[in-house]
Design brief:
This protein is an all-alpha fold. It has one domain: Farnesyl Diphosphate Synthase. It contains 20 helices and two strands. A hairpin with a 2-residue loop joins β1 and β2.
């Protein structure tokens, strides 16, 4: 799509968005935000800003990113994945990329930042498609996963296609360092996924092993969004370094909170069946804390279904109950809070950090997800 103008893509994708919005399960982001806002008000949480509220100053450019992504997926084959891209994700990674760009010459570098944001979101979507195959997940963002809808073979190919499309977007920027950096991050994410698979159905996984997996698999891309966004905008080296540190710490916090929500959250909020990670043999931080608090015999007795690869709903519910009762959930939340504090410390003082208040709002939002 390198020969397609931005204006042409925007026009084509807006008409495509109108057509797709009429299909079941492809509600617009505006309707999704309204629904989430109504749910928050119903639960008495209306006073807390939603992710949509926090990112509203970047809403117009996030729409440009969406237009750019969809414009790159006009061929009939990649159009199959549009339902997943428009299924109401938080768009956190492109938002962080654009936010980081506010610390440099944003207006002069806007076009590059839009392309970079598209690249990281396409990369993220590719990882989700491949992860769902590995995890045998049936739902993602309250939608059928790509492989469950179109089959594993098509899903593997689609993930590969999205990776290639992401690097096409990066190539249009013409910055060798950005290309090399994101390629390195993709390698790191693959190593994290590989290590997670190696640790499945083991009850002696350590906290350090878990944190390294999270750092490689999840935090690396979030940090990369922050790093490359600041770098491409021409921010100072100090600002680039501090914003990158924010990304690493924020990415760690976000995943730990996700893991707690997977145990004790609400399925509608999580967007997939609860305890699905544990069901597939992956131990999250609260489960690791629970297992490490027990003697070897007691641990083997409680986790026998997992060790025998015979998990069921009863077992999953019992682990969640024990994790809460033992304080393992609270301990994991405390770890997440530490990561959030570290993230905030990275951008304090705020000299050289554009839109600094938004970083603090994002940090606060991360913890309110547990409330």
């Amino acid at each position: 799509m390198s020969g397609t103008s931005t204006t042409g893509r925007r026009s084509a994708t807006r008409s495509g968005a109108k057509r797709s919005s009429a299909k079941p399960g492809q509600a617009s982001s505006a309707r999704g935000s309204a629904a989430r806002g109504a749910a928050a008000a119903k639960n008495g949480a209306a006073a807390r800003p939603s992710i949509g509220d926090i990112l509203r100053p970047m809403a117009a450019d996030l729409e440009l990113v969406a237009d750019d992504i969809l414009g790159r997926l006009q061929h009939p084959v990649p159009r199959m994945v549009v339902y997943l891209i428009t299924a109401g994700g938080k768009r956190l990674r492109p938002a962080l990329t654009l936010l980081a760009g506010r610390s440099g010459d944003y207006e002069a570098r806007r076009d590059h930042l839009i392309k970079l944001s598209s690249a990281v979101e396409l990369t993220h979507t590719a990882t989700l498609i491949h992860d769902d195959i590995i995890d045998r997940s049936a739902m993602r963002r309250q939608q059928p996963t790509f492989h469950s809808r179109f089959g594993t073979e098509r899903a593997v190919l689609m993930g590969d296609y999205l990776y290639a499309t992401a690097f096409e977007a990066l190539a249009q920027i013409g910055d060798a360092y950005a290309m090399s950096h994101l390629a390195s991050i993709c390698q790191q994410m693959s190593r994290g996924e590989f290590q997670e698979v190696e640790c499945r159905f083991k009850v002696d996984v350590t906290e350090q092993e878990y944190l390294q997996i999270v750092r490689d698999k999840t935090a690396s891309l979030i940090a990369s969004c922050c790093h490359l966004g600041a770098y491409l905008s021409g921010a100072s080296k100090d600002a680039v370094d501090r914003i990158t540190r924010f990304g690493w710490e924020y990415g760690m916090a976000f995943q730990v909170i996700d893991d707690c929500l997977d145990l004790i959250g609400e399925e509608k909020m999580v967007g997939k069946p609860l305890r699905s990670d544990l069901d597939k043999g992956s131990l999250s931080l609260p489960v690791i804390y629970l297992a490490s608090s027990m003697g070897k015999a007691e641990r083997r007795k409680l986790f026998a279904p997992l060790l025998n690869k015979q998990t069921d709903r009863r077992f999953l519910a019992r682990i969640a109950k024990e994790a809460r009762r033992s304080g393992a959930i609270d301990r994991a939340i405390a770890s997440a809070k530490t990561f959030v504090r570290n993230a905030e410390a990275a951008i304090t003082p705020t000299d050289g950090i554009g839109a600094a208040q938004t970083y603090h709002q994002l940090a606060a939002y991360a913890m309110t997800r547990m409330q």
